[in-house]
Amino acid sequence: MRLVNHGVSSSLLEKLNDEIEGFFKLPLEEKMKYKIRPGDLVNHGVSSSLLEKQNDEIEGFFKLPLEEKMKYKIRPGDVQVYGTVVRSDNQRLDWESQRVAMQLFGYLGELLEMKMGAMEELFEDGMQSVRMTYYPPCPQPKMVVGVTPHSGAAGITILHQVNGVEGFQIKKDGVWNLDTTHSLS
C-alpha cells in the first residue's frame, strides 16, 4: 500500500534523503569503517545472497538502529558518518516512524478483528531501524536484481525511496507490478 498524508514532515524526509545520498557518496574506505562485524548494530555491507547473483552494480546498504536503541554497541565515529539525521533529527525520525508503524499495526489489528490495542502491544518494544539500500545506475538494467524477496525479518517495513527512482515492484495475483513512486509517500 502507498501511504500519503502520513504526517511525517517533508523537511525531515528531505534531510533524510540528503543524508542517505551523502553516505553513499563517501569514499569506499570511509564506508568500510562500518562494514558488518558480529554483534554490531550499525553497519554497511552487501548481502551475501546478492553477491552470488550480481557483480559490482549494487553498492550495498547501511543499517542504523534508531536513537533509543543506539545506546548499545556504537563504535566511535558511528554517529558522525550519518550526520544531521542522527545528531539532530534522529529522535524525530524515530518518533514519527514509530507513530506511523503503530497506527498501521492498529489498522491491521482492526482488520484482523483483534482486541483493540493488541497488535500494537505485540510490537511496542521491538527494535526499529533504518536500512538504506543504494543501487547506482547500471549499464545493463535488466541484469540487476535488487533486495531479495522476504529479506527482512520485520513486523512491518516502511519503504521510503530517495530521488523517485522507479523499480520497486509489488507482487499481486502472481504478477509483479511496478510501483510508481511519490517522493514523499
UniProtKB/TrEMBL annotation:
<dbReference type="InterPro" id="IPR026992">
    <property type="entry name" value="DIOX_N"/>
</dbReference>
<feature type="domain" description="Non-haem dioxygenase N-terminal">
    <location>
        <begin position="3"/>
        <end position="37"/>
    </location>
</feature>
<dbReference type="InterPro" id="IPR044861">
    <property type="entry name" value="IPNS-like_FE2OG_OXY"/>
</dbReference>
<dbReference type="GO" id="GO:0046872">
    <property type="term" value="F:metal ion binding"/>
</dbReference>
<dbReference type="Pfam" id="PF03171">
    <property type="entry name" value="2OG-FeII_Oxy"/>
</dbReference>
<dbReference type="GO" id="GO:0031418">
    <property type="term" value="F:L-ascorbic acid binding"/>
</dbReference>
<keyword id="KW-0847">Vitamin C</keyword>
<dbReference type="InterPro" id="IPR027443">
    <property type="entry name" value="IPNS-like_sf"/>
</dbReference>
<keyword id="KW-0479">Metal-binding</keyword>
<feature type="domain" description="Isopenicillin N synthase-like Fe(2+) 2OG dioxygenase">
    <location>
        <begin position="128"/>
        <end position="176"/>
    </location>
</feature>
<protein>
    <submittedName>
        <fullName>Protein srg1</fullName>
    </submittedName>
</protein>
<keyword id="KW-0408">Iron</keyword>
<dbReference type="InterPro" id="IPR050295">
    <property type="entry name" value="Plant_2OG-oxidoreductases"/>
</dbReference>
<feature type="domain" description="Non-haem dioxygenase N-terminal">
    <location>
        <begin position="41"/>
        <end position="97"/>
    </location>
</feature>
<dbReference type="Pfam" id="PF14226">
    <property type="entry name" value="DIOX_N"/>
</dbReference>
